[in-house]
Amino acid sequence: MNDSTALHTDRYELTMVDAAIEDGTAYRDAVFETFARRLPGARRYGIVAGTGRLVESITRFRFRDEELSWLADAGVVRPATIDWLADYRFSGSVWGYREGEVYFPGSPVLVVESSFAEGVVLETLALSVLNYDSAVANAATRMVTAAGGRPLAEMGSRRAHEGAAVAAARAAYIAGFGATSNLEAGRTWGIPTMGTAAHAFTLLHDSEEDAFRAQVATLGAGTTLLVDTYDIPTAIETAVRVAGPELGAVRLDSGDLPTLVVEVREQLDRLGAHGTRITVTNDLDEYAIAGLSGSPVDSYGVGTSLVTGSGAPAAGMVYKLVAHRNDDGDWVSVAKASVDKVSLGGRKRAYRRFGSHGHATAEVVRTSAVAAARDDERELLSPLLIGGEPVEGVMGPEGVSAARSHRERSTAELPLDAFRLTRGEPALPTVYE
Amino acid sequence: MNDSTALHTDRYELTMVDAAIEDGTAYRDAVFETFARRLPGARRYGIVAGTGRLVESITRFRFRDEELSWLADAGVVRPATIDWLADYRFSGSVWGYREGEVYFPGSPVLVVESSFAEGVVLETLALSVLNYDSAVANAATRMVTAAGGRPLAEMGSRRAHEGAAVAAARAAYIAGFGATSNLEAGRTWGIPTMGTAAHAFTLLHDSEEDAFRAQVATLGAGTTLLVDTYDIPTAIETAVRVAGPELGAVRLDSGDLPTLVVEVREQLDRLGAHGTRITVTNDLDEYAIAGLSGSPVDSYGVGTSLVTGSGAPAAGMVYKLVAHRNDDGDWVSVAKASVDKVSLGGRKRAYRRFGSHGHATAEVVRTSAVAAARDDERELLSPLLIGGEPVEGVMGPEGVSAARSHRERSTAELPLDAFRLTRGEPALPTVYE
Questions:
Q1: What family is this (chains A, B) (predicted)?
Q2: B360: β partners
């Protein structure tokens, strides 16, 4: 039952198809675009994530007998539309910003070219995937900046829907995190997994020393021991005594971290455990991480704030019809006219423009039908599905790995003030030509 | 592959089992409890949601060959533990607050009794389900209060991970919403679905009138026409002309709603469409809904703020070992000692106490081994799984329906100041006896 993604869809997508089949407009050629009107949280840039998941989800967008019979029984659409849905295979083409790419307000991060009906039914699914995954990536990339090269692990599964948790681990990894606690993310997306023990393990044992001995016996001296169940100095003394100075790391999950980590480092050094690392995991966000930059922390584990987008839990992207053919075969650019939700009609091309110093200077969006990249520009849209067929290298662990590399290259192009954590304007202006 | 929930688990749950199998503590009888330390957003009460989903997920917590071979290849646990996982069936018992029940800080919303190993591996899954679903229910119940009896529809699927979207629709329905746009939620949980058309449908057509005619031809005059694609007064005139005064509803998705809906109501009445309802869907949250209480709005559609918990996207519940037997067979109460994360050890019972006026006055949590409800108390923990077997009526659409009824009864017991939208203390004190 979970193999089909077809019912991850708002009812109105299908009722629109129903009415458009009746009057024939369902088959008009159409272009839909996905973009964000603004960057939530007044951030300086965003990171596109979810693209590879979306492409794979589109290949599973199929109405099988169980979906069709439910739709018919529920009276969602008429029998003629049930027949059309039964044959549904997305046969159009999708272009998009590469996964891991930097984006700004107005960036056309996804462009869908198909009949109206084929494209409109993908709206809910496309936005679900891109809005959640990009929200996490947008938070994660700031945490990576704040950590200044120290490794970060994603461990927020328990603070997100269980399916979202897997997507969050994936998006965080793309944005530069090094590992996840989530085993399904490890299996599905090839992301390194991490984790050793919780307070429960210490509490289960008759003494902290028993717990540490049991953990070291099974996981080795290189393991990470959690040292804040009872008294921290006592736990550290016990930890080094049990594991030896080759103890891998100690983990702190509570307390006033800036002060605490200094004391813990001093104690570890006094005990000869100079190589033992300190990892902290206490309700961190990008600001707390930045606040620890001068402290002897070796790595961070981040949970709640990461999987909930650190104050911006949805990226706020929309999926809009921007052009269609009329009955004469002419393309018509369209856009809603309401004052507070302005959209720009017509198929767009997008480019990142670079200055003489080598850094990006503008996000250029062209509505002209013919538009090539200038010498000082990089083209941003690449094919994701052509004639319904996924492009190679986008899906699966391969796509995740490529996206992670691309995010690193793409952020390296940005001017330095893009990496400020304060609220502000987008780091690049979006220029319409 | 999606049939098993077993890898929706943090790696450290399995490494703890690995080490505990090695030293024998894995098989100690244990009690785990789930509770919230506080109500995020300084809200007055919370609503437990996700329980039915969790019970069903526990029945699918199975390590099959594909999970086991991945765990073995990834070196997560030793071969002896792989064997133990292969046989894993939760055989313990789970009690919990009924789904839809009101909860407060410290309420033991879930109590798991099993061996340490059987119970600890459920931590991540249990928290994922309860933290997300309850976050949505916590936001939804406030919106229901703010709407003061006017119907609410959930339409936030596009602003949540696609799997989370289904859970959000379910949680919102339990908390009193009347319908969802999400088709999968309709199929899986029996929730009424709604929705007619988006701006794209109007933009696809050569004129707004063409679009309205097509929609009415297929969906009937009782449909809801979206009237803010171009000029609203023109659209309303067209809508009533096309559908007649029996037009079901008009939808507004932009603009200054308090002013706008008055104008729209007046125009509809002038056109004789007295029965045509007005539904609004423009970035609403509980405060915007409350602000419209004096306006002639007939129903609300709520998206982003609902599925992201309206500022509190995770309920913040934790899953803690509170007691275990030692090798002598004696029960030992346990709790972490850190200053900022105090927990109370020992198995708890929970009761809601009522005053002479009939309203609830306290949340009573007793740690005594023998504890029955007093005459002025209602017992809050009921069985969810006994000896690994789900209790009847908890899962599926049946469970959702029961939870929705229970939420209504449970909130009706609260004192009136529980329903204030302002930040504040919990409406009931949690009393430990």
A1: Belongs to the NAPRTase family.
A2: B354
